[in-house]
Hints:
Largest sheet: 5 strands, mixed
Amino acid sequence: MRARFLAEQFLNVLCLFCFFTYIVGGYSLDGNHGLSFITDLFTFTSLAVLVGFIFGLDLNKIFIFQGFSNFQNFVLRKEPLKPRGTFVFLSLSLLLVSFFVVPILRHHSFGSSFWDLAVMEQVIWRKAFGYGLTSTAITSQYNPPLDFLKNQHLNFWLIPTAGIYRLFPYTETLLLMQTTVLALTLIPLWKIANELLPKWVPPIILPILFWLWDTVHRNNIWDIHEACYLPMMSLWAYYFFLKKKWTQTALFTLGVALFKEDSWVLAGAMAFYFFSSQKKWVPAIFAFAVGFSVFAAYGIFFDKVIPLSSRYAYLGNSFSESLPIISHNPFIFIQHLMTPGPLKFMEKVLMVSGGFWIFGGWAILAIIPSFMECALSTNPAMQSFNNHYAIAFAGPLFFAAALGLKKIDSFHWSLKTKKTLLIAGVAVAMSQLVYSEPVQIKNYFFSEGWKNRECYLNLMANVPADAIVYSQDPLISHLSKRPILFFTYDFKDYLPNSFIVQTSAAHLPANFSTIKEDCGQRVASNFR
């Protein structure tokens, strides 16, 4: 009994230490480095909990578990907050605040970049202030502004976003909108969990699994992307599907499609699942065919910025080139999937949500098209959880995870075996979380961008608001609120009355004179 008591106390202290370390962002050990990387600590703690449970330790005696249980029951209106639940509530509130703070702090530390903050903000700014949904940043000075919808991405979400931006014309508006939508994704997850999860699975598990997916945090800080809106929209569609509210299901599914050309495939796959699960095969096939057709037609006839080879190098530069390649080698896609990049990507996806989505049955179908879009790519960014591509299929994946847990409940196993599998899955999910907002808050305050912040702002104050600007990172994302902006300064000739914002080491073109030079950057102009 004494050994059991000591083991429970060790687990109690370890869980509390792990949770508190995550909340405060590590500890300073020698002034420069600290216990900041949470992955190893999370992995060790979750494995200790798993081993303890297998050997019969009562997790209900662990402080953190008691706190989460009380907080969950408080949200379910089953009991008032107690001290342990209050501690968890305050800790989660602090994490949520840091989730909102980090993207803004990153931008103010000059960590944001042209791809994709400056390019997106300029399109939104131009639309908001009467220049149309167009861009100069992703074209050259020799061409007219690029019509974004017809040539780059089928992003209808930019239209209402521009309306909001006109009222609040700040970069922070776009960053806060994205963070808010990611945070609000926890609501449909919670509601789906209450609908589907068996009684022995706490409904808070599903939002926790989403929070533990590293790509959620990476997307929150990586500038702005339409893909970040897709999890919330798709999960609301799934929730209304469960409630048999068909109008809301259709509206949210259509809403998914309007965010980008490839989200039409996602919406089509979701609609295929909705219809096929009710044995309505004709509308199921039709819905997916429409979604895929919009995606394919846009890529073939409209997208003039991103060549096919930049994402699928083995298919040539265009769809017309790809057809003879595929006809000559029908197995080319399978061959590519067997290469190291796609195999590693598939391995990472298997671990998302603790792997519970694998038991999701028919719902897995809706994951496949967006998953294959990434897996078949030769572009490493599309297979990285640091980028925005994988988060597109988060909705179908986490819905499948909820169904997977429900499926596990139907297995003829003992309750302890099922709970062991649940704890093991959460341990797998915890081992995948690398990014920590509290840690990054500390890092940004000590970054070079933050130290040079006032210097950069004073330097950019010499660039008029309506000036023609040529620039690059790290300053270009702070210069995007203007009608004419070019992401380079390496032209043979330049438009008259323009400004270059460049590094001090860069060659200064003829006819340009330096206006101000400081902190490794230079502002120059050929203004006459």
